[in-house]
Amino acid sequence: MAYFRAHSDAVQVSGALQFAASIPLAVYAATVSARLHRLGVRAPGATIALAGGLLAAGFLACCGLVSWTLSRTEVLELPPLVRALQYLAFATGGPGHVATLGLLVAGIAVPGLLAGLLPRALAVTGLALATIAELATLTLLFDGAALLLPLARFTCLGWLIAAGFLLPRRRTRKEL
To answer: Phi-psi region for residue 127, left (φ > 0), alpha (ψ -120 to 50) or beta?
Structure first.
């Protein structure tokens, strides 16, 4: 609780930025899902990507809003509430966000591999990263699994950037 009192401005800005970061993630999910459909993907991958991306954005938004709430002086006067909100912020921004981010990656990687829309190495790497992201759910049961959270979060985000650049905008006749 002392941390939140001493750093309330930083907590407020951090929460606001986390919330703001959820918006482009939702846009990315919608855009990549539409692109996969436009590229002829009729398998569930495009829908899984959309669902995973929207859930990941939603969990990130919730984490940001809960974190922002922890910057309010009225809240800091209630120690049990502060602790509960800390756990909620961690659960939504940690395993909740990361596991669903893995669904977004898997939803792109599987059709990217099967339809040849992404380089094979990138698609296989995406599947491995999605697996790590799903395993990060174990953080809810074992504190030691928390190491998987930043590992999966940052590598998945990097992978999404690469996939965004390499996923074709349209199929050529040769690919059909």
So the answer is: alpha
